[in-house]
């Protein structure tokens, strides 16, 4: 259980989240519209409530906090309860801060698999759907007012941990993100937009 | 002729040579750079030098595999590591293989209750358990949730993560195809730690060769794949090889040059052979003296034998002139003896140097010089025919005479040059000395760059800052490390340091292990307390059966020993930082600075003050860079002081022998001018002076004083013909010195080239200035 493992796993988990937010653009023609909507997001703030269902724990664990996004590549997740922590992705650097603990800083360049994701996301923002498809199988349902996107990881590194990621939203607003883990545990994050600037 | 005394002299001489030969046959010749490591007088400095000798730095070999594709390199890395581990030459080879990682993981997880810093009786009270488990549950939804979840049922109090947290901040290389790789992914990287100490150059050379050979024999190697290595020991072996090669080549080259020059001048092989006798005798006596006083002879000392060739050849040149009947014998020998005395006074400061290498040089030059002068005085007259027919050198003699005559009109020149040089020295005030230790290291820039790259790739421990102390046995050393660890944790909290690596993290002392075992409640109590602790938490006790049984196993088990670490990378942490020496243990605790790029990355005085609380004897905080720089600075100042004393002695000698202040001034002035000019030229050329330049300047005074003396004495009493002879012989002597030192100056070993350039330049200046400032014809 090396420290680097821990950071790597953390980074991957976090990235999946990162990936998930601006993710709602995938199904070729139909999704181009949604993609363009999302690409107009210059900055956004939201609050979240995340419920994590873990087999060994009898009831769901609830965490709450804020999310903020500034185009093109700055993203923050601030957890307020039950245990404060701050995750910041800026460019290629992921920083994790916890009160009373050392700040952890990871350069994504050191993890080429991860930076490949990042680049694919940025590529996607630029309308490059094919990059996204190398990492996930995509499935889009619903209407632009009420869409639902399912991402199934193609690469073993991710599929070992996650079975799939489900994202739902309305127009450019992401409403929920659900992560299904390989071992049956899962989490649901409900996002409430506070403000955005398009 | 008085035959008997001559035979006696020859017999004595041959006997002495034979004795020297016997001593030399039994002499151990060394060529590593340890002789140029200072002897350390204070306890703190001794720890510093010990660190170089026994510590991890000297044992660490960084290996890189280049060429081929990433997967191929990873495979080669595994195979190389496996084979090297079997050679028993290494205490460990790390390449980030999954087998070692699994063993590490198992070691930390299985022994978490003996290793975790949090295990105290309070930790296992109902309250302690409750808050620890609640923390873990909170963490389940946080960013480390995935890992916490895997460990939770057996480690609900989160010991594993907490004990791993101690290592936090130490960076690890990235992993590619299951083996460590460089950041750019173009190189597989490994770390090997030798059993042999870093100063055992032979063993290090064998280890490096073993790595190279093992790599060559690996199967499925792509054609362009190759292995590169770096590290202190790799440098040491490389510089040893360079020194060995160059010393032999340079010595032969300068000998050839001297032979060529002498043949050119005398055109007589027999005269040449006789002329070399004082030099060779001097060299033999010098080597034997060094061997007898130091027990070994350094290769570099041999290399400096050229100092003797340069100067002792002069004696026979002067002698021939005297024998040819053109010089007044009594006057001639007085000048020679005065020259020997001033040179000896010039070399004498070296005898007191803290660098064994320099002291060897002093013994070598003084004993060799005196022997050469004695052989010239007593042996050569018995061998060389009474009526010596020298080649007629009057034509070059006349030419030189005209030249020097003209030169005396330039009396203003040396002083002007010296003034200009003094100006240059003044302008460089504050940046005269090279503070960088690597200025003396014979390592090429390319090799230094590779070293930096590999260090960066491996995230190799930055071993600049270190806590060091010694203890009579292993247990006391570990207990000491635990005491120091408590203080260091406090400093981490205050952000004085970012972290530290202690062997006690992975192998606590017996005492601490027993204390931790005693803190664990028995089976019944543990179950009871856990049940109460879980009230209000969303976890049922039957999910935590693994935790309860692990607790009991930890409570009952035998304390961990070093052998329990076998096969893990934690074993290396212990072996490389807890060092068994002849009569005690040396404990090293590397510190990680909070901000590596800051000008003062770590306040060692603050750490030192805080560590006083441990009451450990002689516990010191070392800044390898600063401490070794200041150590060398001390020695430089020491040599500087001794040289000044030497100069004073020379002036006193001259005053006593010449019995005239103005004559002494005439001898000293060209020397002062040439030393100043050499310094000015070196500084203007962008060189920053090292201790070796200082030694070179000392030699300039020692050799240059002879030129000045001869010119001066010549001016006193000589006839025009004598003067011409003298001028030719001085020029020949000077050319041999300039030539042989000039060859040293070409060496790629900084130590040699510094002395070579300084002396050849200085000898040239000395001759020119002595000639220009000589009394000239006016003395007639």
Please give a structural write-up.
The complex is a heterodimer of chains A (198) and B (780). With 198 residues, chain A is an alpha+beta fold. Chain A has a single domain, classed as Lipoprotein localisation LolA/LolB/LppX (outer membrane lipoprotein receptor (LolB), chain A), CATH 2.50.20. Chain A is 28% helix and 45% strand. Chain A contains five helices and eleven strands. Chain A has helices at 3-20, 28-39, 112-125, 129-135, 156-159; strands at residues 43-53, 61-70, 74-81, 85-90, 93-97, 104-107, 136-143, 146-153, 162-170, 173-181, 186-197. An eleven-stranded antiparallel β-sheet of chain A has the order 6-5-4-3-2-1-11-10-9-8-7. In chain A, strand 2 and strand 3 (74-81) form a beta hairpin. The longest helix of chain A is centred in the first third of the chain and has 18 residues, at 3-20. The longest helix of chain B is centred in the first third of the chain and has 35 residues, at 232-266. In chain B, the strands form four sheets. In chain B, strands 9, 10, 11, 12 and 13 form a five-stranded antiparallel β-sheet that branches. In chain B, strands 3-6-2-7 form a four-stranded antiparallel β-sheet, with helices on both faces. In chain B, strands 1-8 form a two-stranded parallel ribbon. Among the domains of chain B are: 1-30 and 268-391, Multidrug efflux transporter AcrB transmembrane fold; 118-165 and 511-559, no CATH class; 394-451 and 626-780, Up-down Bundle (Multidrug efflux transporter AcrB transmembrane fold). Chain B has 31 helices and 13 strands. Helices cover 66% and strands 8% of the residues of chain B. The mean pLDDT of chain B is 84. By secondary structure, chain B is an alpha+beta fold. Chain B is elongated, with a radius of gyration of 35 Å. Chain B starts with a helix and ends in a 7-residue tail after the last helix. In chain B, strand 4 (174-176) and strand 5 (179-181) form a beta hairpin. The A-B interface holds A 1-6, 9-10, 13-14, 50, 52, 54, 56-59, 61-63, 79, 82-83, 85, 87, 96, 102, 104, 109-112, 161, 185, 187 and B 101, 104-105, 108-109, 135, 137-147, 149, 151-153, 160-161, 164, 167-170, 172, 174-175, 183, 185, 498-499, 538-540, 543.
